[in-house]
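Record type: monomer structure entry
Structure origin: computed from sequence
Chain ID: A
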Amino acid sequence: MEKKDKKRIYANYLEALVKRRLSIRRRRSLEIKRGGVHRDERLLELQNEWDRIDVLWKKAVETGNTPGTVVNETESNDAQHGGATGNEDESVGTSQRGGAVGSVDTSVPINEDDERATTSHDVSDNFAVASRYVGVAVEQIGADVGVIVDQVVDHHLSGCHLVLISTTLHSLITSIILTRLSEGGKAAVLVETGRVFSQDQLAPDQLLQGLWGDTRTTCRGLIVDLSVTSVNNTQYIFRLVEESEMWKLSKTIVVVVGGRAGVKDALLHHSLRNTPHALYLALHDNTLHDLTHHDSLHLGSRIEKALPMEASGCASVWVYRRCLYCNKGDADVQLVLQNTALSFFKLHGNLFPDEFKNFMSHKYLVVALRYFPYMDYQRHNNQPGTTVTPTDSLDFRILSTLTSLLNFTYEMHEQREFQWGVPTNGKFNGMIGELQREESDFCMIAAPTPERLQAIDYTKGYTPDVMIVLSLRPTLLPENLSLIRPFTGELWLVVMASVVGWGTSLWLLQKVWQWAAGGQVVKFTTSLLYSWGALLNIPPSDPSVNVSGQILVGFWLLFCLVITTGYNSSLIAHLSVQGKSKTIEGFRDLVERDNWKWGSEGWFMTGVPLEYFSKHTDPMVKKIYEDMELLKIDEAFRKVLKGGYSFISFKNYAKVIIASSYTDTFGNTPLYIGKEEIPIFVVSGWGFRKGAPFHSRFSQLIFRLEDTGIISYWNKEVMARRVRENRAAAAEDSFAVLRETIQEERKEVVLGLGHLQGAFYLLLLGSSTAFFTLLGEHLNHRLTSPQ
């Protein structure tokens, strides 16, 4: 066979392979639209056919020969599908240029001598012939990209908000993707980076408003076209991604199209640091070059210079995936597919595997503050921000559970400013500030506020602690006032006024009767003494001289019965059980108590409590905030024990300190926790840097622990264990001072001089009054006597 004929047959063979690929693609599109129960089986048959054509292409390009028939059954398949190729001239069974590809091995025999005679120069000529169909291959590659993107959207981004970023609107890849999306009834926001960062345009932050949808948007997808690229273009694209704050939206699915050389640079770019689901459709560099010069290519065009092709490598799309932890816990890139769009169809279910089951020993940076029982640790040195080793506490138990389940490690350090964080113009300091600046991955115990939720992500962990007022336990009231304690001061005043008022009324009534009818005169002192004597259950003779006076006396005696009965019963109770001072239950009692002071710890006023007090509009809360002292815990408890002072803190935190250091072996303590609990936290839990991809997995496991009740159990167990450890470490005589402070209550009460000393004081008062009255009478007698 002449060399010229051999090249002609070889060229026709390659052209037939290209046409067969186009035929299979069109049939695949029809199958997807038709659907049906056997769709997957028919698509699998097309895939197998595609793979066989691909093998034939590789052999033809490598050897320069026509290695065999294409497939005869595909022709019958075309007929069964109603001419899916749409053009009989594209059938592989016939060729207008001579030589049926389906029977190359018989009609055009190629013997072994001819094959051995093929030289490297012949192979180069074969490449030159093959390059004739590069334009067709470029069309195929562009279509492959469109098919893959369309499948990702169908299976993973259905109904989602789509954004397409390109360096130019004239990109072939961008046009193909937009066409595929529009054919499927999908829409996307198209962004051209050159226009966004143009000096003639508005500020980028204004242009990017609403780029990722609004609060109602539940899922998002980003498609990045790097096919027409340069160093500046790539920088512009990822600068746009970073400034649009896509890193806050970790569930966004990203698809990048570009050259194979830029796979790692794109998928491992810092702007995608929080993106677990990202694909890269890698094109061969030569294909990428042809795509950028697409206008000069058309089917059947002759390229003067042969393009160096690596088998069929430049005629396929390689698919890479970003993995977060596959490189010993660090992010890396994995090759998912080395074939074309039909193979991709079978893989869509495994494109984005769950990477949050095993973190592959990834190391997280954790920031914490000591706040028992939720978090406690041992500092490695005395430097601010030192690394720490957590000790038994609630958050440590939760963290240990997560590390064992998810296989990750961590390095924990103490917040160098010893502050939770308060905002200043949207910027936080303290622990929340470290998360906002992405200096740490997550933090231990923290509480959410509207401002914090703008800067960090959050997960609920457990029931929040409540704020309480700690004071000295109520003390026993003085026994010398036992006689007057049964009645309040207000009631005593009313009773005394009633005695005087009734005596006066009786005297006036009798005075009017004596003036009208005559008779015996009743003195004023006699009426007063009768009213007082009746109240004491020893009334003198009835001074009334008429019926109206007797009626008045009867009702007075009834009044005295009620008053004396109430007094006697209350007096017995007060003598039997000694009264105590009024307890301080909350803020109102603090404000209303005279000469009373209060305070708290310095760290207490660095986070949510500071915002609560500083922003509260209640005058009572403002008064508490204005007069609050900040001091250390030991000094605060000493002041409380002295009396006249209250300590404002959190309940669980204070209970551990009281049970450890201020409770004797019998469980008695001189301290009292007010019953009024102020819930300044909605929830308590952990904070995460914004957009952290592992946040959802952590939250899921913590919710499960909370639902099972184990977090509540751990909280009680951690507190009880710490109390036992502290008491065991303390000397027994350290509680001796408490026994002096605690006033024990006796079960049996025997009345003594102390209980009834008030009666003697009253007798002394009466005797003194009578004596001074006698002196007054004597002086008056001497002045008025004629002698």
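Annotation 1: The two ends are 177 Å apart (CA to CA).
Annotation 2: Residues 69-135, 294-315 have pLDDT under 50 and may be disordered.
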